[in-house]
Write a structure and sequence with these properties.
Structural class: mainly alpha
Strand content: under 5%
Order of helices and strands: HHH
Shape: globular
Oligomer: single chain
Largest sheet: none
Number of strands: 0
Distance between the termini: 41 Å
Helix content: 55-70%
């Protein structure tokens, strides 16, 4: 039995964005769906980023390579779902997804 959206927690919203609606640019995204997915991405990203710069400052090549690889894989995994949820969130505010290009 599937949970109702009003009973979703942060991890459920993240899974919905990254696994269920991976490249869905149609429809709308609730405020909670957008912000919880963004927040959890930052919770994953920031520690890896900090470890990368620690490895850079102490000149630890294995740590830099490992965390650099993790950062690249994480960014590759989250770029398309991030764009998709941003476009759906713009649709929810009655704007075209093309407005996302203004941020570039």
């Amino acid at each position: 039995m599937e949970k109702l959206e009003q009973n979703y927690n942060m991890l459920d919203w993240w899974k919905k964005v990254h696994l269920q609606n991976f490249a869905n640019f149609n429809g709308r995204a609730r405020r909670a769906e957008y912000w919880y997915a963004y927040l959890l991405n930052m919770i994953f990203f920031i520690p890896i980023y900090i470890l990368f710069f620690i490895g850079l400052s102490i000149e630890s090549t294995p740590l830099m390579v490992l965390t650099g690889l993790l950062l690249v894989l994480f960014l590759l995994f989250t770029v398309i779902p991030g764009i998709a949820v941003s476009v759906r969130r713009l649709h929810d505010t009655n704007k075209s997804g093309w407005f996302l290009l203004l941020s570039i």
